[in-house]
Amino acid sequence: MRKILFFIFISLFCTVSAQKRNQFKQEIQVGINGGVNFGKISFLHNDKNANSRYLGTMSMRQGIKAGVSCRYIAQKHFGIQLEANYVEGGWKEKFRDVNYLNNGVNVEGLTIERSLGYLEIPLLAHIYFGNKFRYFFNMGPKFGYLLNVGDVQTNRPIDESTFQVGVLKDPRIEKDPSYHKADYGLSIGAGIEFPIWKTRTILEGRYTFGFGDICPNSKTELYQRSNNQMVAVTLAVMLPVYEFYK
Fold first, then answer.
1. How many other CB atoms are there within 10 angstroms of residue 189's CB atom?
2. Which one, of 185, 228, 238, 232, lies nearest residue 204 by Cα?
């Protein structure tokens, strides 16, 4: 009987110890992030052959990105991250060659710049490797809402009629354009994470491709495509606020 009781005790002890070793400590973290955002719009006319001269060479416009984050580490190497950010996108373009538009206006050397401010809400799968020092990948959908549209910035005065195509005004340079408020797309990012005291400091680069168009895109409109593309580099600080075993 003593041998049987001793065997049962040892078996229970080993079972409990194994369960404790296999338990994973889940975490809920909250934090803030901030950095720089580079945005551009991919414009494409419905009649791209006839109207391509109305578009300059597109380039990234620099803006800011800042927001708050909440992350749930559900299991080893995997979590879910939800963010709410203010993102300043938009675009820049420059006409490099001799280019005559409406009324014989030469727009060579003209630069156009406009900012678009979005409330952005990404929902991301968070895949990480490592323990204290980690490297990670984030990927998931993002939803945006247009909060503000900046004034058109140019290096010399221009008239809206210069860019008008037939009876269609160009929403790129209109003072009060009818841009779509809602936007959606896909975000993909990668970065590193390391502990400092009780917090985790994160450096991430992220690319976001918009599936929606900022301009009306029916066949009777000027553009068939006008979607956001953004690249952001951010620094974030996350603080674990709750830890528990499943």
1. 22
2. 232
